[in-house]
Amino acid sequence: MSPNRYKYQRWGLTFLTPQHNLFSSKKAYQLRFAAISSSLLIMGVVVKDMEITSTLPAAKIFKAFVLDSDELFPKVHPHAFKSIELVEGDGCAGSIKKITFAEEHIKHAKHRIDLLDKEKFIYHYTWIEGDALMNVFEKISYEIKFEAHHHGSVCKVTTKFFVIGDVKLDEEKLEAGKEKFIGLFRAIEAHVLAN
C-alpha cells in the first residue's frame, strides 16, 4: 500500500482513502472487495459461510464433533487423521492442539482454541501452524455454532482465510476443503447415530 493511503473501516468493509482527506468528493474511494463464489475477499481475508443440518440435537452433535473430536476424528476418519493431542493448556480457550494427518501432502497442523462455550454450543479455533496452511495462509479461523433446527440442529460455520501477501486463491481447493469438512461432519453424525 502506498504511504499516502490508509485504511478506513466502516460497515465491516475496509476502504483505502487519500490520507489527507478522508471524505474528499474529488478523490474516488478504492474499495478492495471481490466476490468469490460464496466467499468474500476483504483486504487479504477470504470469508466463507456454510450451514450443515443434522437430525441430531445440537447438544449431541456438538459433543461428538467438538468435545469428543480428539478421539472420534481418528477413529471415524483414519485415512485423514492419525491423532489429535492437546499439547498446551487444559482444553479451554488458549489451549493448543496438534493434529497429525494420515494424508501424504499434509503431515501436521496446530490449532489454538479461541472460544469454547459448552452451554451455547459455540466453538472457535484457529489453525496457526503446519502444512495445512500451505504457505498461502497466515492463519485460518473457524467459528462454529450449533443451533436447534426443525427436528434436529444446524451447524453454522464461518471460515476466515488470512492470505499471505497477494497470493491468488484456488477456488477449487477451497471448495474441496469445504467438501472434506462436510464429509467429516457426516461421518461423525453417522457414527453417533449408529452408536
Automatic annotation (TrEMBL):
One of its GO terms (cellular component) is nucleus. Residues 41-195 form the Bet v I/Major latex protein domain. It holds the Pfam family Bet_v_1. It comes from the Eukaryota. Coiled coil: none annotated. Belongs to the BetVI family. This is Bet v I/Major latex protein domain-containing protein. It comes from Trapa natans. The lineage of its organism: Eukaryota, Viridiplantae, Streptophyta, Embryophyta, Tracheophyta.
